[in-house]
UniProtKB/TrEMBL annotation:
The active site is at E258. This is Aldehyde dehydrogenase domain-containing protein. Keywords: Oxidoreductase. One of its GO terms (molecular function) is oxidoreductase activity, acting on the aldehyde or oxo group of donors, NAD or NADP as acceptor. Gene3D superfamilies: Aldehyde Dehydrogenase, Chain A, domain 1 (3.40.605.10), Aldehyde Dehydrogenase, Chain A, domain 2 (3.40.309.10). Pfam families: Aldedh.
Length: 489
């Protein structure tokens, strides 16, 4: 099933249901992070290509277009057909994802299953978006009507390429919007392949457009475009701020942002230590730590701290690091040289500032961008590794005494994406839930992301929500309609 020699069928820009070269003729390489070898050159979109894609999406959104006149239930059926095609091509897509991203093949299969489920979930919503009647004062009949926001720009990251595509496409298509999506330049291949499947499914021309390229060119063109009505972005807080600025300066387009995190997982001494170590381990090391809601600050109550550290170090040391297509691999490479160097520099800063390396702490050879799963103990709140997002396989274990103390420390961050608590005391869990500043709180589990549950952050972890019914609201305008009664029409 796993095939590192998988054929790349699509490497051009996708506009108006056609694959085309970039206007400039430029391309960029996409790299296999396991060996640093080029996979293929991909057409590089910039402002001119974004303009073409936006024009196609704008045409597809005209009131008399096939897409706008389509029954809502028919939209849902198209989405479901796309999900079925993705399932049919799942092995090929998983191979592309692992080749381009570096994640183990089994992880890619899981991501694609979740992407399929996301599209199917939102397909069911397509004909269930409706307003309400309002008992307005006076001789009036009043109601609300939801309508799609229009042309939407979507910019997705490299850590979950196909899953983030589904998170963005699901609510946008269900509500009847048209799309211009920029995949991360590191991982464009699965987005382009799914674009081809969308054409096969029967989506009308211009509804879905893919513009692979770089953030400062293609991404900036999307954020600042006057004919894009909303932009959705998942990525770093720093880039999210730039997107908000461009959106405000252009046409005040709507913005939804899912940004960085430095999420706390708080473990109390009444919880089973072995189970706690396993939950905390998965919270940090899933997807090589390249996870926005990773529970990277592991707060452990002092009574079990030493025991927990020993178990955490053992779990990390047992993980198999290697090629993403090896069936035994649990940890693949980091995505790029830039991310690899950043993670290694953060590990060095932890050593310099006095944290103790309990496992890992170094790179793995020189063939690819591999880093050993690393565990630090004796971490204090002021250390760089405890304050800045690492986005790599690095766990920081921090000691605490009381509930009140740890809530204050957990909230002492600019981020607020997620949080977790492990305890057998319901009162403690509820106090934590009520007071921690995070968009998702997991109790006695971690990273339990479900398509039915809204996901998003507090503070500088973003604004707006994805997934669940709440995710639809980001793609809808609300219109209030008032009709005078007893009027002779």
């Amino acid at each position: 099933m796993a095939n590192p020699s998988v054929e790349v069928l699509y490497n051009q820009i996708f506009i108006n249901n056609n694959f085309v070269n970039s206007v400039s003729g430029k391309t960029f390489p996409t790299i296999n992070p396991a060996n640093k070898n080029k996979i293929i050159d991909v057409a590089e979109a910039d402002k001119d290509d974004v303009d073409l894609a936006v024009n196609a999406a704008k045409t597809a959104f005209k009131p008399d277009s096939e897409w706008r006149k389509m029954d809502a239930s028919a939209r849902g059926k198209l989405m479901y057909k796309l999900s079925e095609l993705m399932d049919k091509h799942k092995i090929h897509l998983a191979n592309l994802e692992s080749l381009d991203n570096g994640k183990p093949f089994s992880d890619s299969l899981l991501d694609i299953d979740m992407a399929i489920s996301t599209l199917q979930y939102y397909a069911g919503f397509a004909d269930k978006i409706h307003g309400k009647t309002i008992p307005a004062d006076g001789p009036y009949f009043a109601f609300t009507k939801h309508q799609p926001v229009g042309v939407v720009g979507q910019i997705i990251p490299w850590n979950y390429p196909i899953l983030m595509l589904a998170w963005k496409w699901g609510p946008a298509l269900a509500t009847g919007c048209t799309i211009v999506l920029k995949p991360a330049e590191q991982t464009p291949l699965t987005a382009l392949h799914v674009a081809a499947l969308s054409k096969e499914a029967g989506f009308p021309d211009g509804v879905i457009n893919i513009v692979p390229g770089y953030g400062p060119t293609a991404g900036q063109a999307i954020a600042s475009h006057h004919n894009i009505n909303k932009v959705a972005f998942t990525g770093s807080t720093e880039v999210g701020k730039l997107i908000m600025e461009e959106a405000a300066k252009s046409n005040l387009k709507r913005v939804s942002l899912e940004l960085g995190g430095k999420s706390p997982l708080v473990i109390f001494d009444d919880f089973d230590v072995d189970e706690a170590a396993k939950i905390a381990h998965d919270a940090v090391f899933a997807n090589m730590g390249q996870n926005c809601c990773a529970g990277s600050r592991t707060f452990v109550q002092e009574g079990i701290y030493e025991q927990f550290v020993e178990k955490a170090a053992y779990l990390a040391s047992q993980k198999k690091v290697g090629d993403q297509f090896d069936v035994d691999t649990q940890v693949g490479p980091l995505i790029s040289e830039e991310q690899y160097n950043k993670v290694l520099s953060m590990i060095e800063s932890g050593k310099i500032e006095g944290a103790k390396v309990e496992a890992g702490g170094s790179k793995v050879g020189d063939t690819g961008y591999f880093v050993y799963p690393t565990v630090f103990s004796n971490v204090t709140d002021n250390m760089k590794i405890a304050r800045e997002e690492i986005f790599g396989p690095v766990q920081q274990i921090i000691k605490f005494k009381t509930l009140d103390e740890v809530i204050k420390r957990a909230n002492d961050t600019k981020y607020g994406l997620a949080a977790g608590v492990l305890t057998n005391n319901l009162d403690i869990a509820m106090e934590y839930i009520d007071n921690v500043n995070a968009g998702s709180v997991w109790v006695n589990c971690y990273d339990a992301v479900n398509v039915q549950c809204p996901f998003g952050g507090f503070k500088q972890s973003g604004q707006g929500r994805e997934l669940g019914e709440e995710g639809l609201k980001e793609y809808l305008e609300l219109k209030s309609v008032t009709i005078r009664k007893n009027y002779n029409f």
